[in-house]
């Protein structure tokens, strides 16, 4: 296929293989990014400027959200980000995992939004992740996913 024919196919929306690849790549990147946020919490290691990200999550859940069982909820957040991130990257149980991530990102955006101005502290990142998660909750894992492989048997 010549470059001109490929460009015409892309502009006309007729290059399904490229669309599938782009969706799979986006899903994998999103999942791996979430994994990098969950792994330090699960391992008890530092993450960027946070010396103890698990303690920070538990403190946020306890002090800002005022929810009971903050350590347990912190662990569930770490598992969602760590294990769920890997599941999302592979396209395994994509819709439910993405929906849980969307709920997490909505909570982060709502609670921290007023203290994280646009651009200055980066509230746009959890907002973008919220919409990525909503996309995959609606779209599913796509053709190149463990979900599709399991459905085919």
TrEMBL record:
Residues passing through the membrane, by range = 69-90, 97-119, 125-142
Coiled coil (UniProt feature): none
Heme is among the record's keywords: no
Q: Which UniProt keywords apply?
A: Cell membrane, Membrane, Transmembrane, Transmembrane helix
Protein's membrane topology:
Multi-pass membrane protein
**Can you say where in the cell this protein is located?**
Cell membrane
Q: Which PANTHER family match?
A: INNER MEMBRANE PROTEIN YPHA-RELATED (PTHR33452:SF1), OXIDOREDUCTASE CATD-RELATED (PTHR33452)
For this chain, the family text in UniProt reads: Belongs to the DoxX family.
**Protein known as:** DoxX family protein
Q: What organism does this protein naturally occur in?
A: Herbaspirillum robiniae
